[in-house]
Amino acid sequence: MRACTFALAGALLLAGCSNTPGEKAAEKAAEPVGDNILHISWGGIAEADAGEAKRHWSTWTINLVDGSPAYGWLSDKGVTLPHALNFELAGNGKIAAVALDNRFEPVVREDGSMSQTAEGSPVRRFALLGSTKGPEGPFDVLVEGEAKADAQTVVKLPKESTARWLRLRIDSNWAGKGQTRLSDLAVIGTLDQRGAAATADVSGLYSHEYGPILLRQQGDQIFGCYNDGLGTLRGTIFGRIMRLAWFSKDEGSIGAATLVAANGKLYGFWYRPEDRMGSPWNAVREGDLDGADLGKCRAALYPSS
User: Fold this and answer.
1) 121, 174 in Cβ contact below 8 A?
2) Are strands 180-182 and 121-122 parallel, antiparallel or unpaired?
3) Using an 8 Å Cβ cutoff, are 253 and 272 in contact?
């Protein structure tokens, strides 16, 4: 991850333009100047699109806030343009520019195979909309532009604008049809309330497709457990941003996680020590710890008891 650096200490990791884009090498672009306030480490989140649950996680919208082109977003087959992708900053942001990254970066999958060609056609015409009222708007158009097919394109806003809820409207792709892809999205600006908490206490039971996640917050400390005791979590929370270490004794593995608690959900990624990018670890809150069957997670949640 370009915008995140993790340090491993013992068992804990404290977190601190071409019409044929597939036929040419990705263009090396200069990094946008300024802070990417949509990055997960700044508390930015991406909401799932309508058909996301049926797709592989490597195509989910959350990949657009990880700061890397390795995994990105891919639209559903048969869904026609325009597309609308929704995002939320950790607080009101003063936005100066937006950067769309259409570069394709081959990655080695979990099974050892590698994707050699990109699926879908890169975003072409787009608009970034913003709202200070809520996720349903009303939205104002902040800027419109055209993204290069195989590069990162930085588009400055006509004037600095304030927004917290953002909507990326994708009006066309370079093929003019079929699935649309985007590797990464950066919003350049300043954030008024990076440390603002969306939830007073993140303690609770969260459901995830691989198993439940249980969290207990004590001040700025987080104690957790996942997959019915397969592994433990420990770390800190700043505003709505959690930096966690995970450890699985059964698997003999260790790593980090960055999670954001908002809207009754967890958004974010888990990482192994060698990972440059993370795997999504989104989850939905199901209830409080009170009355929940803690089972093998009790010791991790209450280590001093």
Assistant:
1) yes
2) parallel
3) yes
User: Is residue 17's pLDDT more than 90?
Assistant: no
CA 163/CA 94 separation, integer angstroms: 7
Amino acid at 112: G
Residue 238: band (very low, low, confident or very high) from pLDDT cuts 50, 70, 90:
very high
Q: Please indicate whether residue 216 or residue 70 has the higher confidence score (pLDDT).
A: 216
Q: What Rg, from alpha-carbon coordinates, does the chain have?
A: 19
| Predicted pLDDT of residue 111 | 52
No. of H helices and E strands in the chain?
1, 20
- Walk me through the domains of the chain, giving residue ranges and CATH numbers: 26-191 (2.60.120.260), 204-301 (2.40.128)
- Cα distances from 91 to residues 47, 48, 67, 185, in angstroms, run 16, 20, 19, 18
Say how many C-beta atoms besides its own lie within 10 A of residue 25's C-beta. Answer: 8
Q: What is the pTM of this model?
A: 0.86
Whether the CB-CB separation of 122 and 181 falls below 8 Å is answered with yes
User: Average per-residue pLDDT in the chain?
Assistant: 87
